[in-house]
Design goal:
The protein has 181 residues and is mainly β. The chain has one domain. The chain is 5% helix and 65% strand. The protein contains one helix and six strands; from the N terminus they run ββββββα. Strand 5 and strand 6 form a beta hairpin. The longest helix has 9 residues.
Length: 181
């Protein structure tokens, strides 16, 4: 079927769509100060991670926090304890493919944790009174908002009826089906 320009018209459709996305991997070192002078590290883990995000210009700012727990020995490896510290972070994530035409009032930021904060290593510092903890994480963000799509619409010259779409093979298949009581 050939369409002429007189058969074409345009419509604007308003839809919620992803209008920007980005991600960031980071490794950060935090300092934990235990109450006792550590001899060796027995283990380290990260838990209770929370975060939220705001759109700031052409990037997303993620504010988060989590607890760092370090199990260590002290007193010449004769006793153990756990040092706990809550740390905060701010990550600025650049957006790619940011659609600046999307309605600013309708924009919403969604945060996705790709790699939850995880302890890579923990070491006692040179003076022996602090523990350095290296943590990795990866965060993804998507910005959604209302945007307008321009779509082409057209009038069909020959409008088909529903019975025109059933062919002979369909009729044969329907006859083969038996309904059992």
């Amino acid at each position: 079927m050939v369409l002429s320009n007189k058969d074409l018209s345009y419509r604007e459709v308003v839809a919620n769509a992803v209008c920007g996305r980005g991600s960031k991997y980071s490794q950060t070192t935090y300092t934990v100060r235990p109450t006792n002078r550590p001899s060796t590290i027995g283990g380290c883990w990260v838990m209770n991670h929370t975060c939220d995000a705001d759109l700031v210009g052409d990037y997303v700012e993620v504010h988060g926090r989590f607890d760092v727990n370090v199990w260590y020995s002290y007193n010449s490896n004769s006793e153990t304890a756990v040092a706990k510290d809550t740390v905060s972070y701010v990550e600025q994530i650049a957006l790619r493919d940011l659609d600046t035409t999307a309605d600013r009032d309708s924009r919403k930021v969604d945060v996705r944790i790709i790699q939850a904060p995880n302890c890579l290593d923990a070491t006692v510092t040179g003076n022996g009174s602090e523990i350095l903890v290296r943590v990795e994480k990866e965060i993804g963000v998507e910005v959604t908002g209302q945007t307008k799509l321009l779509v082409v619409t057209c009038e069909l010259a020959d409008e088909k009826k529903d019975e025109d779409f059933v062919d002979d093979e369909d009729d044969a298949l329907i006859e083969e089906v038996e309904i059992e009581d």
